[in-house]
Structures are given as C-alpha cells and as structure tokens.
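User: Sequence in, structure out. Go.
Assistant: Echoing your sequence, followed by the structure tokens.
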Amino acid sequence: MSSSEPELNDAREYSSLEEVMNTLLTAKGKSFRELDQTGRALTGGNKGSLGQIIEESVLKYAINSDAAPDIHIGDTSYELKVTPLKHIKKGKQTSAKERLVIDIINYLTLADETDFESSKMWDKAKNIILVYYYDDRTDKKKELRIDCKVLASYLMKYEADDLATIKNDWHVIRDKVASGHADSLSESDTNYGLSLFGVGGSVR
C-alpha cells in the first residue's frame, strides 16, 4: 500500500475512451492486492472492494454511490463494472461466475418513465466498460478474492437481437411496476431484465 492517498479525479472526467482503456490495460495480469493503493485489500477484498480498487487505484477517481454513470468523456458517460469469470469443463471453457447487475429497481420513479432510450437504466447500461477477472478459487477461506488477477477490459457491445430483448424486458418490468404489481415480478417475466436490474429493488 502506498504511504499517501492517490490524487483523485473528483469530476470523473477523461479526455478520451482510449485514455481510459489504456489506463485499464496497465492493470492486466496484476492481482487486486498488487493494484491497491488505498488499503482496501487489507479487509480481505469483498466483491464490492474490487471495483473500488479499480476506481481509486487504477482510474484514480473517488468511489461514489450515486445513480449516475461512473465515467464522463465529453457528453458521453460510461458505467464501469468489474465482474468475475470462471473456468468450466476442466478448464477448457469460460463462463460468467455470477449475474451482472446494472441497476437496482427504484419503484418510486420507474413508473414515471415511459421511454426506454431516456430511462435511468439505459443511461447506465448503454455504455459499459467491463473489467474481467478469473475467480477459480476452490478454498475461499484460504484463497482471497483480492489475489485474483485482472484478465482484460472491454467496451460492451450489444447485438441487435439482445438489445431488442432488453428493451422489451424493460417495458415488461416498467408496466408491471406502473400497474401496481411490482411485488409479483419474477424471473419468468423477462429474458434478461431482472438480471440487469437486480431482484428486490431499492429506493434511492
């Protein structure tokens, strides 16, 4: 850990996407423990702290809890997500280790939104930078998450069919919330939707 706190980019503004991606490239192959400059790794590294290490120690911006996207480049905003992969079939294939949640349902505001393209969810989801790492730990008491290594960083791109499905799922969820039936939302209602939103929801 560095003896001094890193100087942080409080505005979370960058000159270009290339600058952001090149900065993330410097983390490739390094463990989160090696990257940490603030001491977050000392707590053992819960899932949330890995993203905070990338935010503070690699991209050098302060962690935040607001609903807005993380990074700003001109008039375009980007959401940063740090997410694990795992090896399956005796290491021959790779699979997502867990679902990727983009946003949490806000039952107080979702019903007032009518257009997917201007929705809060799409504001966060349309430009996502994914930072992947492998989590193949077999003994989680002895092997800490912060010792997993960054694999790669990518700008997420949506296939036309996937985007159409996500848009339809958003309308299904929104309509159910607006009609007063949010309590009956279930995984079977959508293809991707509740995985993107996260089940349970919150008010913020």
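User: And one key feature?
Assistant: The CA atoms of residues 58 and 101 lie 22 Å apart.
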